[in-house]
Amino acid sequence: MESVLRPLCLIGGSVLVTLIAGWLLDVLLRRADARHRETPLWGLLRRCRIPFQMVLCTALLLGAHHRAGLRPEYQATVERVLVLVLIAVSAWLLVRIVTAAVDSAYARYAAGAGAESARVRRVRTQVTLIQRVVTAAVGVVAVAAMLLTFPSMRAVGASLLASAGILGVVAGIAAQSTLGNLFAGLQIAFGDTVRIGDTVVVDGEWGQVEEITLTFLVVRTWDERRITMPVSYFTAKPYENWSRGGAEMTGTVFLHLDHAAPVALLRDRLESVLRECPSWDGRKSGLVVTDTGPTGIQVRATVSAKDADDLWTLRCEVRERLIAWLCTHHPYALPRVSTAEAPPRPAAGTS
pTM value? Predict the structure, then answer.
């Protein structure tokens, strides 16, 4: 009976201490969050409660498991399992703490930056990639530490170190594409070439950058499709970034009209239409004749908006309302196709 009660008492005591410590930690973080409203750090650190409790419980069990009266063959296995669990949950806790600190710094920066959305998107991109790098690094170190707890793996590690040069060359050649994308992701994050939320045009498709990782980038198109591309594409090939230097954009609307079209009246109508369009930002407007031909003229209306989405809406609305106005008030201005019968060809020998 004692061989059963002692392990149960040890586990129960460790769990009880862990629950009390977790509750006290949560109370302290709540009070700190209530006192320091200027930073969300303390509220974000509350996400660390569960990994903290697991680290504490595992550490207590590891420190007192030899008092449970287990058999020697079981005791070694239990100790090995507890060490592995402690390494894993410690890595989890470290990742949660780093994530809370980085998210807190980003939230304070975003609140202070105000309307400077370009700077906020740049910092958001950098923060996202930093979190992924830290998570990957902590995961690799944790896995390595777990493997090194096995004596056989330590012997294998020593033999691998002897041939590290050859393996490094082979791994570098095999992972050339992956490493290229990795460095490209870091270059994008800190080179400020493209940010999360930017409007870009790649391979004839335009959309917004939705996600940037260390190896790939996701573009969300206007029709809600997702284009996944390697980040190395954005460091090796040209692309359009409509948000670079500001999201404001200027667009054009082309109309093909008859030579008799009232251009001056059409110019005045454009100004009145723009004043009624909420998508127009008031920066640019104009209407000129850009080309002429045997059957008509080409008229170009220039409009501006605060971003690509509003510009597309504005162009469609201007085109629709100008054509409707011409159809109602000046139908003669619309292009016409001549269907008159061609004169007959003169007979042979006649001058």
Answer: 0.50
